[in-house]
Amino acid sequence: MTQSLRQPSRVQITDLRKDYGTKVALSGVSLVVEPGTFTVLLGPSGSGKTTLLRCLAGIEQPTSGTITIADKVVAGPAGNVGPERRNLSMVFQDYALWPHLTVRRNIAFPLKSSTLSKVERASRVGDMLERVGIAHLADRYPNELSGGEQQRVALARALCAHVGLVLFDEPLSNLDADRRDQLRIEIATLTRDAGVTAVYITHDQSEAFALADRVGVLRNGELVQYTRPEKIYRHPKSAFVARFTGVAGEFPVTRVREVGEKRVEVQLPFAPHMFIEATKSENSPYDKDPHLFVRAAGVTLHAATSPEGASGVIRDVAYNGRGYEHVVEVGAKESLTKVYSADRFERGDCVKVLFDPVSCFVMNAQEEEV
Ligand code: ADP
Ligand code: MG
Predict the structure, then answer these.
(1) Which of 60, 69, 256, 274 has minimal CB crowding within 10 Å?
(2) CA separation (Å) from 99 to 89, 95, 96, 145, 238?
(3) Which among 197, 215, 239 is the end of a domain?
């Protein structure tokens, strides 16, 4: 084995399909992960995330399509390369540590077949124990550790192997909220320091945006958008992507008027006397049942005396450590959530709501079924 080899792998997936009997778990999935980048695949439960990761790992064989890792075709018409020959390691939701081995020996496990000397191996394991902050746990067994500690061991084991690609399957979902944030930061920094390529799957959009150089959104086994997080946030390709990556509100539009190549003005039922400027989606039409999708960052609150904006009433307010998040009722049934303001507005206050066109999109609410 070439354990000294530590180049991050380039990953290319082309037209991947996976059927389980009559169930299509993945279809038409194509994407490229550039070496040394961190890609997060985001999607609801059942969208095919784990299936995709298992196909990458070699635990599952695709029905058709090809997967190339570091210039080697590992799955394709010519057959499948076994998981142990793909130069990758994996971090699972349930840690998957060897219960009969100490922390130190768990981490050293992937080096068993390496050509490193005993001294080199011990030094690499010692270094990794330090870096992941678990040196004091080295001689314990997995059942003597908390969930967060076990996941640190799994991370150390994955990075110690000096592979070109690390795969993460929802590694934080079994941890408490405070542990989750801490370990997420460690995964981001240690993985990047190690210079490996990372593919990470989650159903949590805040986790995806915090970690990713590239975000891919999966829906019913299809990759519906794959790009930089900023682009997903600013230019969601469809109503599904917008909703799944977080909107403060979504409203049916009564009238749309074009005002430029990228902009439209819309009228909303609760503000019939004003036009709100919004961004046209590049790929999604607004010809059938157009809705306005508003990101939380695109809404500002102003005093009721402000001459501009739509009228609203504060229904709820919560302190979030930096300022206040409000729920604002803007129509008989319509409201906006997570509206941030550095100033606190009180429940029952009348306000004016202003919309920033770059964070408002108009798209059909119902998408063509793919
Ligand atoms: P996710 O990880 O996004 O929740 P999965 O990849 O686990 O999604 O599953 C995708 C779809 O494939 C789901 O509908 C799931 O029920 C189905 N599926 C996954 N594994 C199997 C299997 N071994 N046999 C049959 N159906 C499966
Ligand atoms: Mg899964």
Answers:
(1) 274
(2) 18, 11, 9, 11, 45
(3) 239
Residue whose CA is at the smallest distance from ligand 1 atom 12? 25
Rounded to two decimals, what is the model's pTM?
0.92
Q: Of 189, 211, 239, which closes a domain?
A: 239
pLDDT at 369: 57
The CATH number that applies at residue 192 is 3.40.50.300
Which tokens hold the place of 363?
């798209």
Residue whose C-alpha is closest to residue 96's, from 194, 43, 171, 161: 171
Q: How many structural domains does the chain have? A: 2
- pLDDT tens digits, one per residue of 102-116: 999 999 998 887 788
Q: Which of 17, 20, 56, 218 to mutate to test the pocket of ligand 1 (most atoms within 8 A of CB)?
A: 20
Q: Which atom of ligand 1 is nearest to the CA of 45?
A: 4
- Which residues have CB less than 5 Å away from ligand 2 (the ion)? 49-50
**Are residues 228 and 254 both part of a single domain?**
no
